Amino acid sequence: MSNTQKEFTIMKYTALFNSRTLMALTLGVLLIGTTACKDDDTPDEGPVTEPVTVEPTFTATVKSVENGLNPDWSPVYNVGVYMIGHGETFAAQNVVEGCDNVAYTVSTDGILTPKEPDRKIAMPAEGSFDFVAYYPWKQGAESDDEDRINGDLYPVDLSQQDYLPGIDLLWCRASKGYTAAQPAVALEFSHVLAQLRLQIVKGAGISESDLDGISLMIKNVYRTAYFSLRDGTLTYTGQPGDLLLEGASTDNTFTTIMLPSTEVPQSDRQATIVVPALSKSFTWDIPADYELVAGKCTVSRIEVDRDGIRVLSNEIVDWTGGEGLPDYEGDFSAGLALPNSYIVRPGQTVEIPVAKAYAVWNTNTLLQSSGISIPKELKPMIVWQDYYYEAPNYNDKTMIVSNEELRLVGSGEEAKIVVTVPAEKQTGGQTLPLKGNIVVGLSDMSGKFYWSWHLWVVDYDPAQPENQYVSNGVTFMSRNLGDLTGGAVDGYSAPCLYQWGRKDPLAGNNWSEYPWMAGYVYDGVGKTSTSSMPSTCSTDATANMVSSIQSPLKGLKDVYGAPNYRYTYDWLSDVPGLASDRWCNEDGTKSPFDPCPEGWRVPVSGIDAQSPWNDVTMSSWEHGLRTDNAYYQAVGYFSGSMMADYDSHGYYWSATMDPSTGQAYGFDFTQTAIKPSALIRAYYACPVRCVKE
Predict the structure, then answer these.
(1) Pairing state of beta strands 7-9 and 233-237?
(2) Is there a contact between 188 and 172 (Cβ–Cβ < 8 Å)?
(3) Mean per-residue pLDDT of the chain
(4) For residues 431 and 435, what is the distance between their CA atoms, to the nearest angstrom?
(5) Of 4, 55, 167, 372, which is least packed with CB atoms within 10 Å of its CB?
(6) Residue 407, Cβ neighbours under 10 Å: how many?
(7) In which band, very low, low, confident or very high, does the pLDDT at 312 lie, cut at 50, 70 and 90?
(8) Residues 115, 63 contacting (CB under 8 angstroms)
(9) What is the C-alpha separation between 530 and 509, in angstroms, rounded?
(10) How far apart are CA 52 and CA 65, in angstroms?
(11) Once rounded to an integer, what is the mean pLDDT over residues 614-632?
């Protein structure tokens, strides 16, 4: 993070009503002898005709806070109120005279009372007015206090965390245009800052008493800023530093208030846990994308044992704890068993349970170690789509016109993405049947994906006997996953290619004129894209696993540059065979990353007779291999920006990895050779032919 000031707009959240806030108040209309908002002890200058003014009644609501943070309202602090003309910008010249930064005490049920009886706001009988309010109150520019408000800039200093209500900044603007006839003003406050709760739990080999006296240091975070009362923005000031947190709650939870990081991610942040009973300290490198959201609470559970720490979960919830992510302490088996792809007929509506995403993120070891969790606010988005018909129109590949046609029904892990695929398509003056491939994702509000599903839009039912064949005792589909024709190579026979162990298809070849090119596809906003792979790679398996999910249209390069300076032929890690269960669980069952639809899976394989292709023999060659009961297209593979070995070589994945090489077993053939137990580099993108479970 540079020393440059960082400014970003704070997200505004509609405040929740405190259950004890009075919902109705008696409006006190007071006649005040002043033209606007002046002190009651103004010297008597003789008989004058004074206009009638009205004292507004204020009620304050705010998201209630648990864990001892600002329970209702602290009696130690006050609310500051400004009155300006309706619709005017908050600026000194627009503040009604004498009605700037007026201090009000606030009761536990949200009733505001002037702190000083002779210093209060009064509304003229004519005109309409808005109000800007904040909490806790500070002196204005007229004060010599270094911690005063300067113009519209409120100083924020979070370096001292001993009494959190004193730094829990709240802000609101009431802009309804209040009048003397309607003087009841509802101040609905939002939290400006972010709440962080870190719960430390004991791991194996230690007792609860070993966690007695623990302390926590959060390092390299910004602690000071200016908040604009005018437009609700924060500007970081000073240098990143440390926050020392002591005195955890009885369940070893540390709670703190911090500057939000949603618009300005902070790198190099760390959390160091000191455990006196073990005479040890442990440090967690906080990921750069670990979010602290204004008005929200980020909750992390960290397990400590004698050897180190492990992040068990992260979630973003309401400041109150509210309706954030559910507690995942139950059985994940149902979610893990849900498919990653669906066969959808033209005109059909499909409902996709998102429980799969929550289950995997909360059980996969690599994803858990990332410190990332699925946020509360999500939306469905089209990752890519490719419409096919016999005379392709390369400028019209959409089946679903926009993301607005997708619906997210329900919330949390109970939600479903609802997609209706049209029965036909109007294009080029023709009404044409629909078929193609769509990848639909679950993303946060910024467009970052947390899971995605493949919709294979085709009038094809693999459950029918005529759409199956048997090889070495294994029942196969008669066509590749995502194949739209099932025939010989025609430019559209390889629209879906898979890197070994990934659930999402990359967009393969989809035009016959340029068979060596990866296909161009459309997203949900009319933008074209194509599969690609970066020229460099990471050796961090956790980062690569996260990228494989959050960048579903992008390939990942084979890892190189490890300490031994060797290629592993795998996109995940420099450790050969790491996570070899990506497509096949240790017990031999279908894995959570398997790309095949329900009832089908990637075939298990091995050497010679263990291969489901062991008895394959060639009957003829027609842009691929024909047997007596099957046809395999020779679509080659994708490993960068081009297709390789197209129309001359076939590669088909199995679910089985050779852990010693970082390669996976597969089916490899040309016109002159058949290899039923070939080893194929795991970062290659090749077709998948599913088999019956």
Answers:
(1) antiparallel
(2) yes
(3) 82
(4) 13
(5) 4
(6) 13
(7) confident
(8) no
(9) 10
(10) 40
(11) 94
* Mean pLDDT computed over 507-532: 61
55-70 pLDDT, tens digit per residue, is 999 998 875 444 333 4
What was the pLDDT predicted at 631? 94
d(CA 550, CA 543): 10
Nearest-5° angle of CA 561, CA 566, CA 570?
A: 85
H helices then E strands: how many in the chain? 4, 48
551-575 burial, b for 16+ CB within 10 Å, e for fewer? ebbebbbbbeeeeeeebbbbbbbbe
Mean pLDDT, range 399-408, rounded to an integer: 88
Mean pLDDT of the 304-312 span? 87
Percent of the chain with pLDDT over 70: 80
**CA distances from residue 593 to 48, 364, 681 in whole angstroms, order as listed:** 83, 10, 18
Task: Note whether 600 and 649 are within 8 A (CB).
Answer: no
Give, in order, the Cα–Cα distances in Å from 383 to each of 98, 492, 633, 646: 56, 19, 26, 26
Cα separation, 165 vs 522, in Å, equals 50
Name every residue whose Cβ is closer than 8 Å to that of residue 127 and which is 6 or more positions away in sequence.
85, 86, 179
User: What single letter denotes the amino acid at residue 287?
Assistant: P
Q: Is the pLDDT of residue 394 over 60?
A: no
Decide the pairing of beta strands 194-202 and 296-304: parallel
d(CA 286, CA 264): 15
Give pLDDT, residue 66: 40
| Neighbour count for residue 52 (Cβ, 10 Å) | 14
Contact 319, 310 (CB under 8 A): no
Contact (CB, 8 A) for 216 and 176: no
Distance CA 444, CA 296 (A): 15
- The token pair that represents 483 in the structure block: 């194949």
Integer Cα distance of 624 and 626 in angstroms: 7
Task: Write out 130-155 in H/E/C secondary structure.
Answer: EEEEEECCCCCCCCCCCCCCECCEEE
Question: What is the full DSSP assignment across 323-379?
Answer: T-SPP--S--HHHHTS-SEEEE-TT-EEEEETHHHHHHHTT-HHHHHTT----S--E
Query: What's the average model confidence in pLDDT over 558-583?
Result: 78
Listed residue (329, 21, 341, 56) closest to 179, CA to CA: 56
Per the confidence metrics, is the pTM higher than 0.85?
no
pLDDT in tens, 123-170: 999 999 999 999 999 988 776 777 789 889 999 999 988 778 788 899
Residue 39 has pLDDT above 60, yes or no: no
Structure confidence at residue 108 (pLDDT): 74
Residues 6 or more apart whose CB falls under 8 angstroms from that of 120 comprise 37, 55, 102, 114
The owner of tokens 């027609």 is 622
Amino acid identity at 563: P
Q: Specify the pLDDT at position 50.
A: 55
The two tokens of residue 629 are 């009961």
Q: How many beta carbons lie within 10 A of that of residue 594, not counting itself?
A: 24
Q: What's the average model confidence in pLDDT over 597-617?
A: 96
The amino acid present at 243, given as its one-letter code, is L
- d(CA 108, CA 281) in angstroms, rounded, equals 41
Work out the pLDDT band at 325, boundaries 50, 70, 90: very low
